[in-house]
Amino acid sequence: MSKDVYVFIEQRDNKIQKVxxxxxxxxxxxxxxxxxxxxxxxxxxxxxxxxxxxxxHGADKVIVVEDExxxxxxxxxxxxxxxxxxxxxxxxxxxxxATSIGRDLAPRLAARIxxxxxxxxxxxxxxxxxxxxxxxxxxxxxxxxxxxxCEDFRPQMATVRPGVMQSVTVDNxxxxxxxxxxxxxxxxxxxxxxxxKKSESKKKDITEANxxxxxxxxxxxxxxxxxxxxxxxxxDAEISSSRAAVDAGWIAKDRQVGQTGKTVRPELYFAMxxxxxxxxxxxxxxxxxxxxxxxTEDAPIFDVADLGVVxxxxxxxxxxxxxxxxxxx
Length: 329
Ligand code: FAD
Known about the structure:
Blueprint: E1 5-9, E2 11-12, E3 15-16, H1 18-34, E4 38-44, H2 52-56, E5 61-66, H3 75-89, E6 93-97, H4 100-113, E7 117-121, E8 123-126, E9 133-139, E10 144-148, E11 156-160, E12 176-180, E13 211-215, H5 224-235, E14 238-241, H6 243-247, E15 268-272, H7 278-284, E16 289-294, H8 301-304, E17 307-310, H9 313-328
Parallel strand pairs: 1-4, 1-6, 4-5, 5-12, 6-11, 7-11, 13-14, 13-15, 15-16, 16-17
Antiparallel strand pairs: 2-3, 8-9, 9-10
């Protein structure tokens, strides 16, 4: 009999990734609806000390598998360890972040366990009658939202992109750490990591930023981002964009906000020369405060903006930079 909602807790360099914390929040809600528990799966070489934060954010139990083979993410040892955890415990649901690691791991496990997997879910709910997991994701190029169920196989598995779910903080009296041993052999390590070279980017991932200054087609060209950069620097913000600016080659794809980009929830979101297409709004409308500047009075972005300025960004952005500089002086 399968039970409990499991979350694969991603760590890199022993640091718990935010997406795992966000997924625990959703898992808490799903487990409460099922009257079951939330269980984290944490793998690494020496990661047990990281478990307290998981209980604070919704886990009742954490299964920890420690082994030197799990120090860095490698598909086979990670898949083997999680497969053993799933086989032994028979979870009802398993959630993974739709990160490069989750996207590699989850399909492999789905095939090995012989169950279904819904990728890139934007919404997860429990069906009141059947108690099945309702997994909703954009389909047909984002033109419809499809709700998918996995009726006949367990666990029901889904990946969710970072930033989509909201973390919760709970006062949970439960905090059970279960240490599981997995026997690895040399044959489980089918790759050799010779060297890890980290990219030297000073840029923060846009899903982690507190303030985002986002530019759209209204910038008129890649040079439009130079002015936005000045504003971002003054505010200690990150630059993001609409898809139009990415498609035009003005900015890298990893900066794109929206349905086919990233979902962000910063404290402050500037939408500069962005019309507010539904696919863009899907990625930013939950921001705490939205300030939009657009020369078209009836641009849809103003429907979600807390503060809207009708005007030309070429005139407004430099003025804004000057004012902030003066305020800071
Ligand atoms: P536009 O819609 O062209 O808007 C430009 C705005 O700038 C206008 O409102 C204009 O009034 C204003 N403007 C122009 N000049 C100035 C000026 N000087 N000063 C002030 N304002 C000015 N889009 C995304 O952003 N993210 C996604 O993830 C995404 N996914 C998609 C998925 C699918 C399946 C599809 C079909 C579309 C997707 N899109 C996405 C595209 C989306 O539909 C829009 O085409 C896109 O968001 C438009 O970008 P924009 O607002 O920058 O450009």
